[in-house]
## 1
Amino acid sequence: MSGNRGRLLVVDDADALAREAAAELTRIAKKSVAASGRFTLALSGGSTPRRLYALLADPSAPYRGAIPWEATQIFFGDERHVPPDDPQSNFRMAKEALLEHVPVPPANVHRVEAERADAAEAAAIYAQEIARVFALAPGQWPRFDLILLGMGPDGHTASLFPGSDALGVRDRTVAANWVAKFGAYRITLTLPVFDAASAVHFLVAGADKAATLSAVFDPASSPDAPDAFPCQRIRPRSGELLWLVDRAAAKALPQT
Ligand code: 6PG
């Protein structure tokens, strides 16, 4: 399945999803370093990627030794408004599952300073770090080599939740987004950053995502519709959009 919804690859289960995602990430990492001398990667939060991160860190798997970690710059697609040692922290999850186990130079890990009381300040500082690492001119967007994303049952991605203000932010790379259903702020990359990426890979697993995924891929739906899901609005202008989905999450999709 392709088109403006990108390429859909259905794999058997969560383990196969992690293997496929790891192989794709390794391919892009090597290609990026060969082309530019570095690999700029934004990690997704949530639970699905944990299996991928553990696989990337596994010395007995073919990925850890193949990825040029020393030339990898690690960012985060979004972060909860909590300290880095909080159980809810996406940074903590990535640190425990991956970053502590691979030789990425600490200076190459660019976390959101989500411990700051003011979420907008944390967002602004993170945006400054992105601008520094990508050497952005004013008005220029960072072109990540790869951004990993997940999808919630409500169709949110990163911390772009349905009806939230950050969905409308198109003049900044990072936004502090009030998420009413949690009664909390999240810090998130914004749609223009996802659309500027060289590659965006969604990782979606589990039967609880099936109904939403079916709606996302409904040919009658449009990413420009007012009720479009946030994940539908991710459209890399000149980049790859890949949906890696397991059979449980794909079970309501038209059989391709
Ligand atoms: C987060 C993620 C979020 C996540 C989806 C899917 O901070 O939680 O950025 O967008 O990708 O909620 O989460 P699961 O992979 O746990 O289903």
## 2
Amino acid sequence: MTDAAMPEPLLRVESLTKSFGGFVALDNISVDIRKGERFGLIGPNGSGKTTLVNCISGALRPSRGRVSLAGEDLTPLPPNQRARRGIARSFQIPRPFRSMTVLENLMVALDFAAGRGVLESAAHRRDAAMSILTRIGLAPKAGALATALTQVDLRKMELARALAMGPKLLISDEAMAGLSHSEVDEVLDLLMSLGGEDIAIIMIEHIMQAVMRFSERVMCLDAGRIIAIGAPAEVMANARVQEAYLGV
Ligand code: ADP
Ligand code: MG
């Protein structure tokens, strides 16, 4: 394909630099992510992974550079406006409204999304909430209080709340911590099915098998720089990655 025929990327990060005082946490990062892509982000502790996704979600403003979504420059926009344009963040620690049921939690998320004028009536929102819970496999727990959910079901509810925003890009920053192997696989299967629905996902994860299984491409950061990007097996085999990340 010629450059002119290349489809526009969903997310474009251009020459992004983030400093905290004199410390450069991200140094001139450029990367494109396509629609529906499953993208793994790895690197040792302190390499800049969370800082990068914070600059993408808007939680942090970059010192230099630019973030755009489907051609629109997001750099000046605060997190809530980026969320409305389709960037959803799945939090490390699920923060549901504990005194509400699973369905009510979803309805609250849909209320927020309705600010875009997508959904009007309460009945419509209820149906939309149930349909998301069905997709995520949580429909049988719709009436349960959030406090009664297991860890894995809380992660699924968090994912359902993110889906309520109708995201184009979902960011998952170490969302699997504390889950068993089979639970990790369960959440991965769910995440992987979203790629088929054209939702791109950036996944930060310590569990290397999970990253390998999930990702179409992996990018490895070290000290705020990209040291490798490409197919998972290639990146894992890269000598710099093994040195920096695996301590080999
Ligand atoms: P990772 O997610 O890869 O573990 P982070 O992006 O959290 O790494 O951190 C990258 C570097 O930036 C670390 O050295 C961290 O201490 C530093 N850092 C992150 N946030 C801040 C902040 N708000 N103020 C100062 N330094 C920070
Ligand atoms: Mg981090």
